[in-house]
Specification:
By secondary structure, this protein is an alpha+beta fold. The chain has 3 helices and 7 strands.
Amino acid sequence: MAEEEVFDCSGCGASVYQDHIDSGIAKYEGSKLYCPHCLKDRESSGDDGGGAGGGADVFEPIEFNDVPDRGEPLVDMTESRIQATTATGLGDAGVWDESRFGRPLNPKGETASRCRTFHCKLTDAALGFMTNQINDWLDKNEDISIKFSTSCIGMFEGKHSELNLFLTLFY
Protein backbone atom coordinates (compact mmCIF):
# COMPACT_ATOMS: atom_id res chain seq x y z
CA MET A 1 0.00 0.00 0.00
CA ALA A 2 1.44 3.38 -1.03
CA GLU A 3 1.99 5.89 1.70
CA GLU A 4 -0.38 8.89 1.45
CA GLU A 5 1.23 12.31 1.17
CA VAL A 6 0.43 14.65 4.07
CA PHE A 7 0.51 18.44 3.77
CA ASP A 8 0.60 21.13 6.48
CA CYS A 9 -2.05 23.82 6.94
CA SER A 10 -0.59 27.30 6.40
CA GLY A 11 -2.78 28.65 9.20
CA CYS A 12 -2.29 26.27 12.10
CA GLY A 13 0.14 23.58 10.93
CA ALA A 14 -2.44 20.76 11.11
CA SER A 15 -2.13 17.74 8.84
CA VAL A 16 -4.07 17.97 5.58
CA TYR A 17 -4.51 14.85 3.44
CA GLN A 18 -5.04 14.66 -0.31
CA ASP A 19 -8.59 13.33 0.37
CA HIS A 20 -9.39 16.61 2.17
CA ILE A 21 -8.26 18.61 -0.85
CA ASP A 22 -10.09 16.34 -3.31
CA SER A 23 -13.36 16.56 -1.36
CA GLY A 24 -13.10 20.34 -1.04
CA ILE A 25 -12.98 20.56 2.76
CA ALA A 26 -9.38 21.82 2.57
CA LYS A 27 -8.42 24.37 -0.09
CA TYR A 28 -5.57 26.33 -1.52
CA GLU A 29 -6.03 30.08 -1.34
CA GLY A 30 -3.32 31.61 -3.44
CA SER A 31 -0.21 29.59 -2.65
CA LYS A 32 -1.36 28.67 0.88
CA LEU A 33 -3.19 25.49 1.90
CA TYR A 34 -5.80 25.73 4.68
CA CYS A 35 -7.45 22.97 6.74
CA PRO A 36 -11.27 22.95 7.26
CA HIS A 37 -11.00 24.76 10.60
CA CYS A 38 -8.82 27.57 9.28
CA LEU A 39 -11.03 27.92 6.19
CA LYS A 40 -14.07 28.31 8.43
CA ASP A 41 -12.27 30.89 10.58
CA ARG A 42 -11.13 32.82 7.50
CA GLU A 43 -14.63 32.81 6.02
CA SER A 44 -16.27 33.90 9.28
CA SER A 45 -13.75 36.73 9.73
CA GLY A 46 -14.19 37.91 6.15
CA ASP A 47 -10.53 37.39 5.34
CA ASP A 48 -10.05 37.29 1.60
CA GLY A 49 -6.48 36.05 1.85
CA GLY A 50 -5.04 39.57 1.62
CA GLY A 51 -3.71 39.36 5.14
CA ALA A 52 -5.93 42.07 6.65
CA GLY A 53 -9.01 40.39 8.02
CA GLY A 54 -8.07 38.68 11.24
CA GLY A 55 -7.23 35.35 9.62
CA ALA A 56 -4.09 33.30 10.03
CA ASP A 57 -1.84 36.25 9.09
CA VAL A 58 -2.75 38.15 12.30
CA PHE A 59 -0.18 36.37 14.43
CA GLU A 60 3.14 38.07 14.87
CA PRO A 61 6.33 36.20 15.68
CA ILE A 62 7.28 36.01 19.35
CA GLU A 63 10.50 37.78 20.19
CA PHE A 64 12.75 35.89 22.59
CA ASN A 65 14.99 37.46 25.20
CA ASP A 66 18.71 37.28 24.55
CA VAL A 67 20.26 33.87 25.06
CA PRO A 68 22.29 33.76 28.29
CA ASP A 69 26.08 33.66 28.19
CA ARG A 70 27.69 30.23 27.83
CA GLY A 71 28.61 30.16 31.54
CA GLU A 72 25.01 30.70 32.69
CA PRO A 73 22.69 27.65 32.63
CA LEU A 74 19.53 27.87 30.51
CA VAL A 75 17.42 26.27 33.27
CA ASP A 76 17.66 26.91 36.99
CA MET A 77 18.50 23.51 38.50
CA THR A 78 19.24 24.75 42.03
CA GLU A 79 15.98 23.36 43.42
CA SER A 80 14.78 19.80 43.15
CA ARG A 81 12.20 19.17 40.44
CA ILE A 82 10.90 16.07 42.23
CA GLN A 83 7.55 16.62 43.92
CA ALA A 84 6.06 14.57 46.75
CA THR A 85 2.85 12.64 46.11
CA THR A 86 0.20 11.61 48.57
CA ALA A 87 -2.76 9.24 48.54
CA THR A 88 -5.12 12.22 48.08
CA GLY A 89 -3.40 13.90 45.19
CA LEU A 90 -0.20 15.13 43.69
CA GLY A 91 1.24 17.22 46.52
CA ASP A 92 2.65 20.48 45.14
CA ALA A 93 2.82 19.25 41.54
CA GLY A 94 0.00 21.66 40.66
CA VAL A 95 2.04 24.69 41.77
CA TRP A 96 3.16 26.80 38.82
CA ASP A 97 6.02 29.24 39.32
CA GLU A 98 6.02 32.04 36.75
CA SER A 99 8.64 34.18 38.51
CA ARG A 100 11.40 32.95 36.20
CA PHE A 101 9.68 34.07 32.98
CA GLY A 102 11.03 37.32 31.55
CA ARG A 103 8.39 38.03 28.90
CA PRO A 104 5.35 39.91 30.28
CA LEU A 105 1.82 38.58 29.91
CA ASN A 106 -0.34 40.07 27.17
CA PRO A 107 -3.90 39.43 28.45
CA LYS A 108 -5.64 41.94 26.15
CA GLY A 109 -3.61 41.24 23.01
CA GLU A 110 -4.37 38.76 20.25
CA THR A 111 -1.12 36.81 20.46
CA ALA A 112 0.07 34.41 23.14
CA SER A 113 3.25 35.05 25.07
CA ARG A 114 3.42 31.81 27.10
CA CYS A 115 2.08 28.29 27.19
CA ARG A 116 1.34 25.63 29.76
CA THR A 117 0.84 21.91 29.09
CA PHE A 118 -1.39 19.59 31.11
CA HIS A 119 -1.68 15.83 30.69
CA CYS A 120 -3.71 12.99 32.13
CA LYS A 121 -4.58 9.35 31.60
CA LEU A 122 -7.62 8.53 29.50
CA THR A 123 -10.02 7.79 32.37
CA ASP A 124 -13.04 9.69 33.69
CA ALA A 125 -11.38 10.35 37.06
CA ALA A 126 -8.13 11.58 35.50
CA LEU A 127 -9.95 13.85 33.04
CA GLY A 128 -12.00 15.29 35.91
CA PHE A 129 -8.83 15.89 37.93
CA MET A 130 -7.15 17.64 34.99
CA THR A 131 -10.25 19.80 34.46
CA ASN A 132 -10.18 20.83 38.12
CA GLN A 133 -6.46 21.49 37.91
CA ILE A 134 -6.92 23.80 34.90
CA ASN A 135 -9.86 25.63 36.50
CA ASP A 136 -7.98 26.08 39.80
CA TRP A 137 -4.96 27.44 37.91
CA LEU A 138 -7.16 29.91 36.01
CA ASP A 139 -8.97 30.97 39.22
CA LYS A 140 -5.63 31.67 40.95
CA ASN A 141 -4.28 33.64 37.96
CA GLU A 142 -6.98 36.10 36.94
CA ASP A 143 -4.53 37.98 34.70
CA ILE A 144 -4.33 34.99 32.35
CA SER A 145 -6.39 35.04 29.17
CA ILE A 146 -6.24 31.86 27.05
CA LYS A 147 -5.65 32.67 23.38
CA PHE A 148 -5.87 29.14 21.93
CA SER A 149 -5.14 25.53 22.76
CA THR A 150 -3.96 22.31 21.19
CA SER A 151 -4.53 18.73 22.22
CA CYS A 152 -3.26 15.33 21.23
CA ILE A 153 -3.20 11.78 22.52
CA GLY A 154 0.08 9.92 22.85
CA MET A 155 2.18 7.61 24.94
CA PHE A 156 3.50 8.97 28.24
CA GLU A 157 6.68 7.25 29.33
CA GLY A 158 6.87 6.52 33.05
CA LYS A 159 6.86 3.39 35.17
CA HIS A 160 4.35 2.04 32.63
CA SER A 161 3.77 3.45 29.16
CA GLU A 162 0.17 4.63 28.93
CA LEU A 163 -1.94 6.67 26.54
CA ASN A 164 -2.37 10.22 27.81
CA LEU A 165 -4.24 13.32 26.71
CA PHE A 166 -1.91 16.30 26.31
CA LEU A 167 -3.50 19.75 26.40
CA THR A 168 -1.39 22.85 25.77
CA LEU A 169 -2.94 26.22 26.62
CA PHE A 170 -1.39 29.30 25.01
CA TYR A 171 -1.97 32.48 26.99
